[in-house]
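Task: encode each sequence below as structure tokens.

Item 1
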Amino acid sequence: MSLPASSHSGAPTASAGRRVLVSSVSSDSHTWNLVFLQLLLEDLGHEVTNIGSCVPDDLLIAEARRHRPDMMVISSVNGHGALDGGRLIRKLRQEPDLSDLKVVIGGKLGIRGVDGASHSEGLLDAGFDAVFEDAAGIEPFRRYLAASAPALEGAAR
């Protein structure tokens, strides 16, 4: 996700303790966005496993099984988030043990930027729980995290 810098409050929120797996789509080699997301999520009290960039779909699925997160956050900076993310989520949703995992995606999802068509509907239809287009900034993602805290509590293993 292309997101502005946040301030570090150090105070966990009521949703503290959730396990979140952070990665990019398989073709995206950017890492600063993943570090930002990790720091943001940790600042909000979540336990984060950042598995890095360019992670092939099958390895990401294996890491989801290994870490058993409450949520997976996929970020894209290169503009291929819609293409690679759609493929990833369809594969993941076919896995019975991961089919109910909360998975969100955000960032630069297409190569045309803010002048291009929205990719939200297609990615939601493919199986993502939420989609965050980069033009909206970080606040929709923060609101989603706050609103999903009770749902994530029920998902905790």
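Item 2
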Amino acid sequence: MTNNTGEPVAQAHFRGVLQSPGRSTPWMDETFFYTISGGIEPGETLEWSLAPDSTEAWGSPSISDDAQLSIEVLRLDGPTGDMLWERP
């Protein structure tokens, strides 16, 4: 993730869709947020490796091995919790 906002970002809200090719119904379509340890400064790029918790639906063993995850950013919050940006 690269912060192109001009403001420090402390938390990002996402929509994640997990779907297999040829499958009309996604395995998952949910929103979630990620608190960025130490935040991300303007112009800074961070790389994350997020893994599902096996006790939650995202980690279900019934999800096909060919499933693909797409992520879209819904909202960004600053260090004081103020909303910096929200998807229209």
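Check on item 2: The longest strand covers residues 28-40. DSSP finds no helices and four strands in the chain.
End of task.
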